[in-house]
Design a protein that fits this description.
The protein has about 140 residues and is an alpha+beta fold. About 25% of the residues lie in helices and about 25% in strands. It is built from four helices and five strands; from the N terminus they run αββαβαββα. Strands 2-1-3-4-5 form a five-stranded mixed beta sheet. The mean pLDDT is about 100. Bound molecules: tetrahydrodeoxyuridine. The site of tetrahydrodeoxyuridine (THU) has 13 residues, from helix 2. The site of tetrahydrodeoxyuridine has 13 residues, from helix 2.
């Protein structure tokens, strides 16, 4: 799947964000190796700590549907309707990616619009990450 299409699905997911506290809306679109896309948004909570990031919403939806292998994720985030900065995944989300994704191959696309994005690998964002391979 093209990056542009995945970004478009992340932008769509962002519209569903539940953010009464931060008003910072994030959307994610996760592409599995099977070719399916799982969309996620951030979901906040009055008690703050139960808040779930958009990326993890997408991962947990996919994992709970039986998916285990992933190719890429597109992420968009910002306060305003018009996005101005690239939204990179938080540390906890990077660690969740580490559980299910190949650090050198998994692609993270963070976008401002469909034609303004940067792409990197999980290992670039989480060098020397701790993952399942460490426990073999
Ligand atoms: N957030 C995400 O959804 N993804 C990230 O990687 C960083 C932060 C959300 C959590 C919270 O709802 C809001 O952004 C502000 O932290």
């Amino acid at each position: 799947m093209e990056n542009e299409k995945l970004i478009c699905l992340a932008l769509e997911a962002r519209n569903k964000a539940y953010v009464p506290y931060s008003n910072y809306k994030v959307g994610a679109a996760l592409l599995s190796k099977s070719g399916k896309v799982y969309q996620g948004c951030n979901i906040e909570n009055a008690a703050y700590t139960p808040t779930n990031c958009a990326e993890r919403t997408a991962f947990f939806k996919a994992i709970s549907e039986g998916e285990r292998e992933f190719e890429a994720i597109a992420i968009v985030g910002g306060h305003q309707e018009e996005l101005t900065t690239y939204a990179y995944p938080c540390g906890v989300c990077r660690q969740v990616m580490m559980e299910f994704c190949h650090p050198e191959h998994f692609k993270i696309i963070t976008a401002i619009s469909m034609d303004n994005y940067v792409e990197c690998t999980l290992s670039e964002l989480l060098p020397n990450g701790f993952g399942p391979a460490n426990l073999i």
